[in-house]
Structures are given as structure tokens and as C-alpha cells.
Design goal:
6 helices; rod-shaped; mainly alpha
């Protein structure tokens, strides 16, 4: 069998002639039935106009609310709750979580892990780390923990 694949002498198709030929073959096409309005499919929205929705995970939410609590009420050392309303890091976590739930525990673990990353592995608890560092150092750990929770989508 001898088949040529590289042919360059094709005649271009006249698109108007092509359309007229189909019209002659089917001069009165039967219109497609329209669906009832109640059963019509919802309108499709182009993906380019809709921003992706990202939900905040419970750990990120707890950490973010706890840091906002510290910003609003103040940060304290050596005390869970200062008489003027300021709190230490663990006190802020408790205020944000509302109870010792899973988000509270996971947020605390992530915060302590980040404290160990930035300030060494010797820290056993959040209060001991909190009481041994400056406000700027504590804030840096909070912000890094929030970023990690965001990237982990937790």
C-alpha cells in the first residue's frame, strides 16, 4: 500500500458554499425542544471571573483570634490573666478557643512547635516560653504559627 501523507495541493473549502450545501440537504430543520424553565440548567459562570474561595481552618482561626485578643487587651508575662485584662499566650489561646477543644490543642501545639523552631528545643510549655521572651519575639512566633496554619490549611 502506498499512502502519501505530505500533500500540499488541497483545494480550500468555500465556507459559504459549504453552508449552502447543508441548507439544501436539510432546508427546514426541526428545532431542538426547549427544556421547561423549571428544569433549565443553572447558568455557567466563567472560572476567570470568580475568585477561589478559601476557608480558614479552625487552628488558623483560633491563632488569629488569639493574636487579635493580645493586640486588643495586651500581652502579659508571669500571669495567665493580668488584673488589667492582658493575658499571656496560653491565656489568649483559651480566650479565643472558648474551651479546651481540638482547635485549642492543635493551635497550642503549633504555637509551641514554632516557638521551639525560633528559640530552641528546650521549651516544654507555652507559659515557660512566653515568660522568657520579649513581646516582639512572642509576636514573631504567633505570626509564623498563623502562616504555617494557613499554608497547612488547618
Amino acid at each position: 500500500m502506498n499512502t502519501r501523507t505530505q500533500t500540499t495541493d488541497f483545494t480550500p473549502v468555500d465556507q459559504d458554499l459549504y453552508a449552502k450545501a447543508f441548507q439544501l440537504l436539510d432546508p427546514d430543520p426541526i428545532p431542538e425542544p426547549t427544556a421547561p424553565v423549571a428544569l433549565a440548567a443553572p447558568a455557567q459562570v466563567p472560572l476567570t471571573t470568580t475568585a477561589p474561595v478559601r476557608l480558614t481552618g479552625p487552628v488558623e482561626k483560633t491563632l488569629t483570634e488569639a493574636l487579635a485578643f493580645l493586640d486588643t487587651h495586651g500581652w502579659a508575662r508571669y500571669s495567665l490573666v493580668h488584673p488589667e485584662g492582658a493575658r499571656c499566650s496560653i491565656g489568649a489561646l483559651r480566650a479565643a478557643a472558648g474551651s479546651r477543644n481540638a482547635a485549642y490543642c492543635d493551635a497550642g501545639n503549633l504555637l509551641l512547635d514554632e516557638a521551639r523552631r525560633q528559640h530552641g528545643k528546650k521549651w516544654e510549655t507555652i507559659p515557660s516560653w512566653n515568660d522568657s521572651h520579649s513581646g516582639a519575639q512572642v509576636r514573631s512566633v504567633w505570626e509564623a504559627a498563623i502562616r504555617r496554619a494557613h499554608h497547612m490549611n488547618i
